[in-house]
Amino acid sequence: MNRRSRLAILAATSVVLAVPSTARAAPKLFAKVGPGFDISLRTATGAKVTKLKAGTYTIVVTDRSGDDAHNFHLRGPGVNKATSVPFVGRRVWTVTFRRNATYRFVCDPHELVMHGSFRTR
Ligand SMILES: [Cu+2]
């Protein structure tokens, strides 16, 4: 094997190694607002999110507020995403939570009674 083909093999190997062998889909969280004055963020098993590992998550937002005029607004370091108040339906967000931070979710028109938060580590 000459030097050039050895280099070509090395280059090809590097490209393969650059792709993580354990690439996984981002964990899913489920955000809900409405009907009524309920707002929540839960894991796939239905547990309320109070603590979370920093990282990238897929958030499935279900906004069923309709005539009650609610929205779902998630904010914190590096994150600021919201549905609009008239919106009814489903949105899928990809968000990255930083370490050692507090994230809050609220319904903007009723922030005092419709809110929640969690910490990351
Ligand atoms: Cu509201």
Helix share, percent = 10-25%
The overall average pLDDT, rounded, is 88
Structural class: mainly beta
Q: How much β-strand is present in the residues? A: 35-45%
Q: How would you describe the shape?
A: elongated
How is this structure best described in words?
This protein is mainly beta and 121 residues long. The protein has one domain: Immunoglobulin-like, CATH 2.60.40.420. The protein is built from one helix and nine strands, in the order H-E-E-E-E-E-E-E-E-E. It has one helix spanning 3-18, and strands at residues 28-33, 39-43, 51-52, 55-63, 73-76, 79-82, 89-97, 102-106, 115-120. The strands form two sheets. A five-stranded mixed sheet has the order 3-9-8-5-6, with no helix packed on it. The protein has a four-stranded mixed sheet with strand order 2-1-4-7, with no helix packed on it. The radius of gyration is 21 Å and the shape is elongated. The termini are far apart. The model has no long low-confidence stretch (mean pLDDT 88).
Summarize the model shown.
The chain has 121 residues and is mainly beta. The protein has one helix at residues 3-18, and strands at 28-33, 39-43, 51-52, 55-63, 73-76, 79-82, 89-97, 102-106, 115-120.
